[in-house]
Amino acid sequence: xxxxxxxxxxxxxxxxxxxxxxxxxxxxxxxxxxxxxxxxxxxxxxxxxxxxxxxxxxxxxxxxxxxxxxxxxxxxxxxxxxxxxxxxxx
Length: 90
Prior knowledge:
With 90 residues, this protein is mainly α. The protein has helices at 14-31, 36-84. It has one domain. Helix 1 (14-31) crosses helix 2 (36-84). The mean pLDDT is 84.
């Protein structure tokens, strides 16, 4: 019995682009019987975009914590010195 192969649309690549790893997994299992190469490509796109987003998130989080610690230490120093200044009472 001959198996009919369908040519899948390039629109399947949009699923992992917009939904990332979940979209890549869905596209992989939907495309695997007909287009195994395209299925693997969709899965790789989803994994890559997810890793990229996690990496950018971690970098931005580290930058945010760095600035937060820097500004908190400046605020703490200002408050410490500000409490030692005694102004004359009129």
